[in-house]
Amino acid sequence: MSDSPREQLSRQLAEAVAEALRADLARQENALLVVSGGSTPVPFFQALAACELPWERVQVTLADERWVAEDAEDSNARLVRAHLLQGSAAAATFVPLTTADATPEQGAEAVAERLAGLAWPASVVILGMGGDGHTASLFPDSQELSLALSTDAPAVAVRTPSQLQPRITLSADRLHQARRHVLHITGGDKRAVLARALSGDDVRELPIRAFLACPLATYWAP
Ligand code: 6PG
Description:
- InterPro entries: 6-phosphogluconolactonase_DevB (IPR005900), 6PGL (IPR039104), Glc/Gal-6P_isomerase (IPR006148), NagB/RpiA_transferase-like (IPR037171).
- Keywords: Hydrolase.
- It is an enzyme of class 3 (hydrolase).
- This is 6-phosphogluconolactonase.
- The structure is a single chain.
- The chain is globular and about 40 Å long.
- The protein contains 7 helices and 8 strands, in the order αβαββααβαββαβαβ.
- Helix 1 crosses helix 2 (42-49).
- 31% of the residues lie in helices and 18% in strands.
- It has one domain (5-217): Rossmann fold.
- The mean pLDDT is 93.
- The protein has a 5-stranded parallel beta sheet, covered by helices on one side. Strands 3-6-5 form a 3-stranded antiparallel beta sheet.
- A hairpin with a 6-residue loop joins strand 5 (155-159) and strand 6 (166-170).
- The chain is α/β, with parallel strands linked by helices.
- The protein starts with a helix and ends with a strand.
- The protein binds 6-phosphogluconic acid.
């Protein structure tokens, strides 16, 4: 049975990311990959995990994380460990964003030091996009959005618009520190949102706009 469009897209993206990592590893000791969570990336993680790479020299961290236990169903760290890093030498240097601290604000400060030790600028930052135009955990009109867009701190504690779920997100400053940016989007419902973002809506309404000026490859499947 032929692959679905999403599976074909995931394989193409995995091959492109593997190529980018190989290119950077040809001139530096380590290469950093920053990935997003949610449901879209799972087939991409599986396809990338199957690529031949010196995984012991590949560092991985997250663009954002929900403030939940690392074995929780909706943990992005759990997703990455299960589908990208399972049995991989890269698991040893994976930097999750949740910490043992009591609050996400303390966690964002605590994780800053571990993030600083990674091979910035990242080889690739992979961003998803929600149906409201959020990316990472930079949500429209959230009270912490201005901070996340302006701070030079690497990570910021934020709340989802529903205030239900505390999160940690890399700041826009940190997410910009990459040689390559990729938008990995699935869902036909998002086509109109991206078109609005491309046509010029304000970054507070559509935070994905903060990254559309980057040299960006877009991988899209309905
Ligand atoms: C997260 C992601 C988030 C994601 C979008 C799109 O933690 O949920 O980092 O920014 O990329 O919500 O998610 P889907 O691609 O699964 O719709």
